[in-house]
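seq as requested:
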Amino acid sequence: MLKDFEKKKREDKEALSAETKTLHSRLLGQQQLLRDAKLPVVVLIEGWAAAGKGSLIKELISEIDPRFYNVVSPVIIPENDERYPFLYQYFKAIPENGKITFLDSGWMESAVQKFLRHEITKAEYKRRIRQVNEFERQLRDSGYLILKIFLHIDKEEQFERLKGLAEAPETEWRVNSEDLWQHKEYKRFTSAYDEFMKITSDAAPWNILDGKRRKTAVRDALKLLVDRIDRGLDEGKYIGNPFEEKMALKKMPRLSEVDLSLTIDEEDYKAELKRLQTRLTELHNIIYRKKIPVILCYEGWDAAGKGGNIRRVAYPLDPRGFDVHPIASPLPHELNRHFLWRFWTRLPKTGHICIFDRTWYGRVMVERLEGFCGEKDWKRAYNEINEFERMLTDWGAVVLKFWIHIDKETQLARFTERENTPEKRWKITDEDWRNREKWDMYEPAIDEMLQKTSTKNAPWYIIESNDKKYARIRTLKIIVKALEKACDENFSRIMDK
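struct tokens:
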């Protein structure tokens, strides 16, 4: 791609200026149309150091209302200091519907630089390329318009620009050791960029522009952007078709097959609770030291005992090292982004524990059954969720998912108790009763969810919770066992009884 790149002949300056002005006017007129159509746009500007990426973005936004766009300059953090997954800062930056995000470098520069620096292995590099393809496809399939530009200059041009910047007192700060290293390794970077662009062009193709001719590059970038927006406005919001990638799935029983008669006596409960919570406190210190992120996901029937279960897990943890996220209906700014955005932005740092009370699985349960998303959206979500969780475990996270299960009779008894107990009455709402009436609709959807998303790397556990105390002990055992395995320290193989 870069090796075969041909530079265009110089163009008439007046004609170039006139065309650029026209394109700016078109982009200005597209702002409100984008907002009305609720089309989000991601513009990724990659390229060589000193190729003019920042200047190009400055020109692209010069005529746009600043309320309609955001410019993000992701930081390439050394691998040893990174506290979040590879794609975290990029997913976090995606715009709301009707707005544009401009990225001054992004996932290509980060992946390539770390690979050439030997901060990541070739296997990890290939995983990140796979993740990039999944990320771009997920955005495209949920209606995002993606434009990717690579600003190209040759080695000689880069040398002259870096030299000019370094020799001027007011710009010398803009040249760092990474820029000089890239210039020294120009040939290696050329091959790596070529390979990266070749295998990440399916969901959104790359566009290579001549960075040596700045005004021409501005005109060409503007034309690419306005044409992409026009095409998106003409075609309407794209909705991707569902497909299933083959992943190693863990066979799950149907909810109706689960034995809910399991119990634990009070004396055993107290002894086991104390033992497991003590061990969990020890493990929390170890995972912090070893920088292992942990993500615990709770789903289940209303009144199944999720809150009490979470309290027993959270109690022995250092409050500085965990967060509990109760997930309700998405807020407007969350609803106007990809459905996984609000979960990406709540991920824990390495060494921390994050507990989700309700999760991204709302997409294939309540959103599916209540009509809050289209059929293609929820069917596509199974695969998107599996990809998301694989990205988390590729990062090194322990991901455990619990379905807290009770039968209809137990739920009715607990609902009735809540209504008749003043201090518990706040826990029961009309919505709970409406959901109960739809039990027979939800159960097959939950069975399908469990079957399609219980992977080897992020398994589901159905927790029998007619006896809440039994459920708490079983959940704690699973967590302790998983963390011991992850820490590889005195793995005691605590088994379910």
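Residues 13-37 form the longest helix (25 residues).
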